[in-house]
Structure to design on (331 residues):
């Protein structure tokens, strides 16, 4: 990867990590389900009119929109609203890699190797340590919702794998249209119209900033840049940068929100990041097809040969275990 592309990948990880702090601030201004609905509404509009028609079947857009947008983000925002710290949330959510591997085994028949299984065990040990730390310092209800959110994220990764969207940004924008109404309906039922109206009437510049950040910076810029990098480099070169997300999440939470890091949390972080690295970054398919794509100015006799390489590698990539990036908006 070129230095500029490395810097871009690190910037995306920083944007996604800091996003947890921004969400924590936003929860002081909005009820969690209303906040989630506004986030997807602003992410979808006006972008949905600019990215063109959906490039995958609607069944995949709806399925990912419900699992990722409604379930994962509804659980995540509610869990943080119940007291799960931003830094811990950025860390615990990475266990989605374990759930992704498990769901891929069940739904796609992708059998994890010994190294991947070892990574799952290490990551689950990190979750156990994090649960002990959270139980000693705060309510466990929010922590449990984080684990449920990670499971939903893993399921959405498998659904996205099945959908195989050719354009990540187009897919994410159309997926963002799905959760808006269900989340608004859930907010009216669970949080009440009075609380929602009060939050909207009290909207200030901080509230505007957090919505713009989680919608445009995290979703539009983050996923647009991440998809751009994946189209130009092997997934094995890009995916490791996702491990920087909890690093930026925990450090920004400490600097901005004053969250402390207990010895148990440091231990949980080491186990989780190490386990997720083993689980997520074990490849069976080599480079992506994009890595073999011939340049447009290649001689005519080279292009068919490169195309054959790309087709063969695309088949290997399809058969290998999908490696999730930080996911549609982490968070």
């Amino acid at each position: 990867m070129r230095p500029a592309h490395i810097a871009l990948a690190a910037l995306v990880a920083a944007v996604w990590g800091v996003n947890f702090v921004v969400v924590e601030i936003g929860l002081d201004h909005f009820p969690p389900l209303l906040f989630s609905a506004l986030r997807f509404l602003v992410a979808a509009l006006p972008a949905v009119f600019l990215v063109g028609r959906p490039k995958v079947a609607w069944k995949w857009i709806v399925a990912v929109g419900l699992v990722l947008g409604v379930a994962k983000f509804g659980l995540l925002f509610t869990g943080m609203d119940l007291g799960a710290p931003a830094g811990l949330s950025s860390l615990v959510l990475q266990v989605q890699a374990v759930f992704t591997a498990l769901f891929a085994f069940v739904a796609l028949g992708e059998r994890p190797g010994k190294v991947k299984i070892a990574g799952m065990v290490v990551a689950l040990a990190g979750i156990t340590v994090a649960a002990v730390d959270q139980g000693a310092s705060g309510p466990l209800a929010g922590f449990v919702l984080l684990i449920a959110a990670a499971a939903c994220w893993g399921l959405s990764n498998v659904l996205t794998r099945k959908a195989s969207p050719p354009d990540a940004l187009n897919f994410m924008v159309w997926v963002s249209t799905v959760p808006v109404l269900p989340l608004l309906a859930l907010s009216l039922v669970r949080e009440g119209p009075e609380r929602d109206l009060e939050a909207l009437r009290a909207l200030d510049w901080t509230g505007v900033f957090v919505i713009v950040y989680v919608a445009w910076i995290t979703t539009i810029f983050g996923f647009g840049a991440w998809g751009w990098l994946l189209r130009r480099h092997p997934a094995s070169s890009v995916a490791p940068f996702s491990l920087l997300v909890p690093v930026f999440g925990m450090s920004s939470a400490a600097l901005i929100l004053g969250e402390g890091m207990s010895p148990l949390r440091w231990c949980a972080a080491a186990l989780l990041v190490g386990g997720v690295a083993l689980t997520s970054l074990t490849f069976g398919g080599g480079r992506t097809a994009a890595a073999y794509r011939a340049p447009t100015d290649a001689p005519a006799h080279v292009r068919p040969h490169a195309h054959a390489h790309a087709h063969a590698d695309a088949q290997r990539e399809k058969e290998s275990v999908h490696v999730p990036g930080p996911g549609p908006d982490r968070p």
Remarks:
- DSSP finds 16 helices and no strands in the chain.
- The radius of gyration is 20 Å.
- Confidence is low (pLDDT under 50) at residues 283-326.
- The first helix runs from residue 3 to 26.
